[in-house]
Amino acid sequence: MTALVIAEHDNASIKAATLNTVTAAAACGGDVHVLVAGEGAAAAAAAAAQITGVAKVLHADGASLKDGLAENLAAQVLAIASSYSHILFPATASGKNVAPRVAAKLDVAQISDITKVVAADSFERPIYAGNAIATVQSADAVKVITVRGTGFDAAAASGGSAAVETVAAVADSGKSSFVGREVTKSDRPELTAAKIIVSGGRALGSAEKFNEVITPLADKLGAAIGASRAAVDAGYAPNDLQVGQTGKIVAPQLYIACGISGAIQHLAGMKDSKVIVAINKDPEAPIFSVADYGLEADLFQAVPELVNAL
Amino acid sequence: MKILVPVKRVVDYNVKVRVKSDGTGVDIANVKMSMNPFDEIAVEEAVRLKEKGVVTEVVAVSCGVAQCQETLRTAMAIGADRAILVETTEELQPLAVAKLLKALVDKEQPGLIILGKQAIDDDANQTGQMLAALADLPQATFASKVEVAGDKVNVTREVDGGLETLQLSTPAVITTDLRLNEPRYVTLPNIMKAKKKQLDTVKPEDLGVDVAPRLKTLKVVEPAKRGAGIKVPDVATLVAKLKNEAKVI
């Protein structure tokens, strides 16, 4: 029994979500191999070989894998899938994009967003925006899984010394091509890996205010910035900052929700945070029901005051 | 060009579901059911493409119990031209739905299939990708912009770290994200009109698809509850608590 982890990487380094996925893979009971598929990704493959608990790294390199196109990446996984009992992807935009494609081609179910490995064939996963936790058992020969990072500790990024084996890259499918990318530039910690997150909601009122009020607090705390769906829909914050059921799932040490009412869809994305602070002037806001510390106040006064007090 | 839009009937997004005391699932008896919000965005996008003249016909599909007809009527009230119900009382998992849709794609030969990226009940986020794999079609998931240009379609996707744009050859599968559009309100005249539109019913057997579930749900429990927190009177107290009690800053 061997598990294959599909690494999330930028060719130069391994993304943090891969480390949590390695831990989940190890919990399935067998050896753990990691696939690094990219173009010019030797550095990422070398980094994957350092992860504690990884027995082997498979490195596929080619132009077809440059932009992570689902058709090609799925074909690459399928090319080596027959050796594995478990195939695990981080539940990131890329993992969610590719994993179901692999599962369907293997004619097996895919198990989304697992938060616990109960046994080699049984897993816990949240359903209904995290309002219920289901334990599901798979009868399929291969388990294709996406792993929710907040459910598993990160494996140590160093200490391992796995062999790196080269595998041939698949040909391009010819059905899709990459046109361009608009990357949100930020020096802040990544949302899903941050220890502290400062999150803003609709109450901020505008993109200018969002920036003016939330950014200084995040700067002071070295925090990542998050947002509610309402704030993203209104254009106060970019889409990749959305925390919630269908956005990013986060569990930092400290989550500070400013002017967020706390719809169940938002709570689904942050209620596993260790400490939650809510600043909201509405005493009835549902966010207070999950907050360890609630401050009933106007955020336009309270947040700058908090920046000064830190 | 024809568009196929699969829609799912789910517990309304405003309902907070309760876990059954025997741990077999969640209690959805007498709960308000609606179209999955992401699927509503998919129908809206398809109808807008028709209004732009890019598309000639919008066909809505739903797989599930007889009541899914209501969901299909809603899709037709938004503007879908006709509907197909694949009727079954079996529990349908994403792989089974993808197989049913694949059979309908073979029959209907649409140029685009637009689906919601995720249903808000099982939160699986699989069906569109699985359909694309089974039908050997290119895919663009989590779409925030769709532009059809001849036999190609350019799709902007919401990904980690920003946006990316792909070009797909049609036929292709697209799954919707929240920012793609804001679905219109359905008007009474359109609801009345939708009642007269064609709705065909087929069974999974008619399509030659085995829908037996692959995953068995062993139990369903409530998530761990957070301990009750406290309200703090002012910013100074908050800072003191975070430093000395929670020790997180």
Which terms summarize this structure?
heterodimer, A: 310 residues, alpha/beta, 16 strands, 26% helix, B: 249 residues, nine-stranded mixed sheet, two-stranded antiparallel sheet, 15 strands, 28% helix
Radius of gyration based on Cα positions of chain B? 21 Å
Instruction: Note poorly predicted spans of chain A.
Output: none
Average pLDDT of chain B, rounded to a whole number, is 96
Find the count of extended strands of chain B (DSSP E, 2+ residues).
15
Ranges of chain B where pLDDT stays below 50 over 5 or more residues in a row are none
The Cα radius of gyration of chain A reads 20 Å
Strand arrangement, major sheet of chain B? 11-10-9-12-8-1-6-7-13
| Element-by-element helix/strand order of chain A | EHEHEHEHEEEEEEEEHEHEHEEH
Main sheet: strands, sense, barrel of chain B: 9 strands, mixed
How much helix is in the residues of chain A? 25-40%
Strand content of chain B: 25-35%
- Output the structural class of chain A: alpha/beta
Principal-axes shape call of chain A: globular
Provide structural commentary.
The complex is a heterodimer of chains A (310) and B (249). By secondary structure, chain A is of the alpha/beta class. Chain A is built from eight helices and 16 strands. In chain A, helix 3 packs across helix 4 and helix 5 packs parallel to helix 8. The longest helix of chain A has 15 residues. The longest helix of chain B is centred in the first third of the chain and has 15 residues. In chain B, strands 11-10-9-12-8-1-6-7-13 form a nine-stranded mixed beta sheet, with helices on both faces. A two-stranded antiparallel ribbon of chain B has the order 2-5. At the A-B interface, helix 3, helix 4, strand 5, strand 7 and strand 8 of A face helix 3, helix 4, strand 9, strand 10 and strand 11 of B.
Write the layout of secondary structure elements.
The complex is a heterodimer of chains A (310) and B (249).
Chain A: E1 2-6, H1 16-27, E2 31-38, H2 42-49, E3 56-61, H3 70-80, E4 86-90, H4 93-105, E5 110-114, E6 116-119, E7 122-127, E8 132-138, E9 143-147, E10 163-167, E11 176-183, E12 196-200, H5 207-221, E13 224-227, H6 229-233, E14 254-258, H7 264-270, E15 275-280, E16 293-296, H8 299-309
Parallel strand pairs in A: 1-2, 1-4, 2-3, 3-10, 4-9, 5-9, 12-13, 12-14, 14-15, 15-16
Antiparallel strand pairs in A: 6-7, 7-8
Helix pairs in contact in A: 3-4, 5-8
Chain B: E1 2-6, E2 9-11, E3 18-19, E4 26-27, E5 33-35, H1 37-51, E6 57-64, H2 68-78, E7 82-87, H3 94-108, E8 112-116, H4 127-134, E9 139-149, E10 152-159, E11 162-169, E12 172-176, H5 188-196, E13 199-202, E14 215-221, E15 230-232, H6 235-245
Parallel strand pairs in B: 1-6, 1-8, 6-7, 7-13, 8-12, 9-12
Antiparallel strand pairs in B: 2-5, 3-4, 9-10, 10-11
Helix pairs in contact in B: 2-5, 3-4
